[in-house]
Amino acid sequence: MNSSTSHSMLRALPAELRQRLMRIAREVSVPQGTRLFEEGGRADRFWIIRTGTIALDVHVPGRRSAVIETLGHNELVGWSWMFGPHSWHLGAETTTPVRAYEFDAVAVRAMCQDDPALGYAVTQWVGNIVARRLRSSRTRLLDLYAPYGSGTSL
User: pTM of this prediction?
Assistant: First the structure.
């Protein structure tokens, strides 16, 4: 499965389950420069980007927040809603105007609890995204700090 397949809900979930989730989606437009959430805040929703880009950042004491990844078309913004304690691990800010589908996390978690097939599919989808982002972060950190880079070309 390539990365575009693994992060896109449109490809990751079976059509019937995807349609059920999309029934509770709300289309939103968010201006450039809008903070969607702050590290440590309550993770009560998530987004799938239709157009535009969103930067994920981490707070660095005494400095500007450091951007660790930029997300775009069809990508999931926010996974902290899925796992307790449901607080954001990062911050997020729109870097361009964004159009997205917004989902209420409490409603999605309730749907997943009521339907084990949906719960499993959503957990697999979000879990795969978290795993891919952790691998990507590891590679970036090794490129920055390891004496010989990430070694991915070996």
Answer: 0.84
